[in-house]
Amino acid sequence: MAIYHLEAKIISRGTGRSAVAAAAYQSGGTLYNDYDGITHDYAKKGGVLYSEILLPDSAPAEWADRQTFWNAVEEAEKTKDSRLARQLIVALPTELTMQEWLPMLREFVREQCVAKGMCADFAVHDTDGHNPHAHILLTVRPLDETGKWQAKTQKEYLCRRGEEEQGFTSTEFPQAKAEGWEKLYKYRREDGTAGWYTPAEAALHPAWERISKQPKATKFGRQNPVCEAWNSEAQILVWREAWADCLNRALEQKQCPVRVTHLSHAARGLDEQPTVHEGYVARNLEKQGLVADRCELNREIRADNKLLRELKAALQKLTGAAVYSVERIAQMLETIRDKIVLAEYQLTINSREAREYRNTAESVRPVLAEIRTVGQQILARTAERKTAQTEKDACGLLHPVRLHQLTGQIAALGEEIEELREKKSMLLASLDCRSDADAKAVAERLKAIEQSITKLAAQRDKLTAQREDAVAEFESVHSEIRPEDMPAVTDQRTNLRSSHDDAIAVLLQEHYGGAYHDLDRINAASRADAAIGEQSGEVAIQAISREQEHQHPQAAEPPKHKQNKNYEMSR
């Protein structure tokens, strides 16, 4: 189904990338980079369905050629860490076809990028037939009316007027000068120290010597306002919203009921956890019968969200009537208690899993560290033996003493290496590994376990917060009960308890399957009762006691003489 995804990246020389290479990759072509003399050939790359260049009116016509265009971009940037281009990656809805993707992409790129002065090169990819997406490569340096590149920044001179300091560009300085601002230059004072002063300030000290030709300027200069707008966080937000609008218009025209949104769950006021992007690698692993971490995490999130929706729906149904009533209060209290029981159960599972993960990590981590240490020792000793063997081969028979020493050294090193290998073999066997590749796989699993421990810690914090919120909600509702209605509320809660406990058991069985244990649920219920200030089963016990008092009023308060008689009998 249609999903929303928009990711923005920067193509920068500082990270070892080039705009020409990025353009060649996303277009599936062969491009030569004049800047570094490298040819980037992706002609055999599959999955590229379409590519196109869109230019503003001021751009040179020859830039319609991809190699000419991106080499012009590379030529304009002089530094080794220059930002060369920006890349947007957007997911395309599978409900639409190529004939419907292209008009949607052209509309978005023209209105949101080219109309602002950017040059754009976009391509449609679908490597496996199930993950269509588009790469949009954009320029980061604006053009003037004649098609020449503008500067990204302007030099900004620091000027002083009285006690004030302010920066001005070369075009702003004439007006600033007329208003009394002066540039700062470096002067050496009589004591040999130096500082930045205006010519007017230095004129008061004839002995001072000016030692700088250039006036003082800010470190990075003044950013071009167009570049500043393009690089802003606000621009990313505009792109995100505009892409969602384009998708929804196209889906509406196709009469598809599904819609997407660029807003996060928090911005939409949703309590549900958002799923993560799985990607084709994870889905391919799942097709091969393997479990991908991302897919497994999404399954857990969807199950948790389903549970949350069911609880919220039940709570909303029960709290729909605003009129005070014993039945309503009892239902609300039991429903809130359900939330606390569920949180306690999930905390139990969380603690158990975290403990198992920690035990595994604590047992595996030192063994892997020792395997690495022994491996490094083997490499070091092997290098020593190789050096000694080389010296022995060059020594010859003319140096019998040194030859003898080297022979013994080589033999000793050989024995030490064999001992280290045996030690490493035993360490590998302790992890049920036969080779370094197996140990590497164990290290990867350890990394996944440590990530799981971190996720479980975050989940525990969230569950604890949910439990505390529910306890506060329970106390708030409980405080609404009138004193005279307390027995009736307790009776009503007792009548509801069995059905609520059964419903919780069904939810947990659906969620956890064979991992569900009823004893854990009972223990979770006991902890929930303690959290709300009730002993386990206290509601039912109080109701039974009142029923007995009602049926046998004499038993509630035995006469004094009967109490004494019983006391005498007990003696």
Topology:
Layout: E1 6-12, H1 19-27, E2 30-33, E3 38-41, E4 48-54, H2 66-76, E5 83-91, H3 98-112, E6 120-125, E7 133-139, E8 153-154, E9 156-161, E10 164-169, H4 173-178, E11 182-183, E12 185-188, E13 194-197, H5 199-203, E14 209-210, E15 222-223, H6 225-230, H7 233-253, H8 279-287, H9 293-318, H10 326-395, H11 400-430, H12 436-478, H13 486-512, H14 518-531, H15 538-551, H16 553-556, H17 560-570
Antiparallel strand pairs: 1-5, 2-3, 4-6, 5-7, 6-7, 8-15, 9-10, 9-11, 12-13, 12-14
Describe this structure in words.
The chain is built from 17 helices and 15 strands. The protein starts with 5 loop residues before the first strand and ends with a helix. It has three domains: 6-147 and 227-253, BirA Bifunctional Protein, domain 2; 153-223, no CATH class; 319-536, no CATH class. Helices cover 56% and strands 13% of the residues. The strands form five sheets. The protein has a five-stranded antiparallel beta sheet with strand order 1-5-7-6-4, sandwiched between helices. With 571 residues, it is α+β, with helices and mostly antiparallel strands. It is extended, with a radius of gyration of 38 Å. The protein has helices spanning 19-27, 66-76, 98-112, 173-178, 199-203, 225-230, 233-253, 279-287, 293-318, 326-395, 400-430, 436-478, 486-512, 518-531, 538-551, 553-556, 560-570; strands at 6-12, 30-33, 38-41, 48-54, 83-91, 120-125, 133-139, 153-154, 156-161, 164-169, 182-183, 185-188, 194-197, 209-210, 222-223.
